[in-house]
Design brief:
With 77 residues, the chain is mainly alpha-helical. The protein is 83% helix and 0% strand. The chain has one domain.
Amino acid sequence: MMGNFRFQMGLIRAYFDAHIQQKLMYDTQKEQSARNRLRLGKENGSQRAIDEAIRILERPSTDPGAYQLKQRCEQLG
């Protein structure tokens, strides 16, 4: 069954969909953290809050689950 290209295409699609879902959850969490920092702007100073929010959003994706799913897609492809 693993040698069947039609099966492999469905498998790649499933792994890719799971990868995108993991990445979306991670990116949404980063966005929420950045928004929380911006809300503290009145207390800590607006420029500091903006700098912290930008630093949060510029963090690279370090989610190991999403990385493994992406590698699996590349292996199957």
